[in-house]
Design goal:
The protein is built from 4 helices and 5 strands; from the N terminus they run βαααββαββ. With 145 residues, it is α+β, with helices and mostly antiparallel strands. A 5-stranded antiparallel β-sheet has the order 2-3-1-4-5. α2 runs antiparallel to α4.
Length: 145
């Protein structure tokens, strides 16, 4: 692990996103709340938040962090068809929260897959990426395009 002991705490925010592409039938089942495992959106949001919080248990070199906020939003993409999931992780600390936001997105999307796989095993999880970050020594980052 990197020693961050000498660094000064700063406000840090990271936003990550990812998509899941599925059949029209699966998409319609999710948006109409007709899946056998229950409410997909609510469960995926809870899973994304839990995944964000558990990042240092899953990624070996990540520091345990005292997160001050986690937000998760899901955008419907009927033309894909599928969904785009966003996670925003926030803290005041000595190291960034990019891995936490990326892990939250991954877990949220995997949860959607798990809840809908009975309808469509061919779903694809796509484009998990950092959208932006604020704070820290390396400064701010904003994905272009």
């Amino acid at each position: 692990m990197v020693d961050v002991g000498s660094k000064e705490p700063t406000r840090r925010i990271a936003v990550a996103s990812g998509m899941i592409k599925m059949s029209k039938e699966a998409y319609e089942a999710v948006v109409s709340n007709r899946t056998k495992k229950g409410p997909v959106f609510q469960t995926a949001v809870i899973a994304a938040i839990m995944g964000t919080k558990k990042t240092p248990e899953l990624i070996p070199m990540c520091h345990p962090l005292l997160l001050t906020g986690i937000d998760c939003d899901i955008e419907e993409l009927p033309n894909l068809p599928g969904f785009k999931l966003y996670v925003t992780a926030k803290l005041s600390g000595k190291t960034g929260v990019e891995m936490e936001a990326l892990t939250g997105v991954s877990i949220g999307l995997l949860t959607i897959y798990d809840m809908v796989k009975a309808i469509d095993k061919g779903m694809q999880i796509l484009n998990i990426q950092l959208e932006s970050k604020e704070g820290g020594k390396s400064g701010n980052y904003q994905r272009n395009g």
